[in-house]
Amino acid sequence: MKHKQVLLASFLVASGLAGQSAYAALNWTGTADYTAAPGAQADEDTVGPFDTYDMGAGVVLLKSIGGNDYNGIYQSYVTNHELASLSVLAPQLNTTYELTMVADFTETVTPINATSTLISVTGGNFNLYFDSAVNRNFGTDTGFADGASILSGTILNGVGSAVSSGGMVFGVTDITIKVTSFDINVFEPDTITDAGGILTLRLGSPFDAALLGSVNSVNGNAYNAANGDFLFAADGNIALAVPEAETYAMMLAGLGLVGFMARRRRA
């Protein structure tokens, strides 16, 4: 997860936007007993301690609502649980059960210069779903919201940047989340109140062609490029937090796009 934080800081400093980050919050650390989730089949994992959900390849659909304003829809799934950026064992994840993420949000995209833009997320909602069947499918736009919601909340705000280079667009956004509901039978201790998210976006990369070429809609929202819609490949993570949150100024800069491109190439 550290590489995403550094990448975010690089974008924000380059844009003159260094400031408070959602990752300044004191992370929640605990366990998740998915055998206690609604609909569980007793072949799931109890995972922990962990503090972060790391998401796999996902998609973001942006639909224009006028001017520089967009509605965004995000779909993805959890590939790893992490503690202090290290993977935590969950051997049955994506084998006997899955965890999927669906979010909707609004954002304003403001040009800074010919190659870079400012991203300002103004609100939204998210849900993390548990499903005892592994049935997600980007091509048919199914299987992402058919399970039981075990963690949900409100996207309060977010800030980030996007840069275009060589026919591709790369973006990263830091999102602040208020957790409003979670399954107390699954999560222990039951002290989750907040979260921070890092969402990275990519458009025009040949590495994403197979994924994006299969997507016609995201969470029931049709993709239509002729109407000004944008469809991005997305990566991200959600770090859970407790009430005793701190803030600090991000002072890192310099990695730019190289780290992000290298990581995705290795993946």
Can you walk through the features of this model?
The structure is a single chain. This protein is mainly beta and 267 residues long. The chain has one domain (2-266). Helices cover 10% and strands 49% of the residues. The protein contains 3 helices and 15 strands. It has helices at 2-14, 209-213, 258-266, and strands at residues 30-33, 46-50, 52-55, 58-66, 69-83, 86-88, 98-111, 116-131, 148-165, 168-182, 187-188, 194-203, 217-218, 221-222, 230-241. Strands 3, 4, 5, 6, 7, 8, 9, 10, 12 and 15 form a 10-stranded antiparallel β-sheet that branches. Strand 13 (217-218) and strand 14 form a beta hairpin. It is globular, with a radius of gyration of 18 Å. The model is unreliable at 1-25 and 243-267 (pLDDT under 50).
Please describe the structure with a list of short key phrases separated by commas or semicolons.
267 residues, mainly beta, three-stranded antiparallel sheet, 15 strands
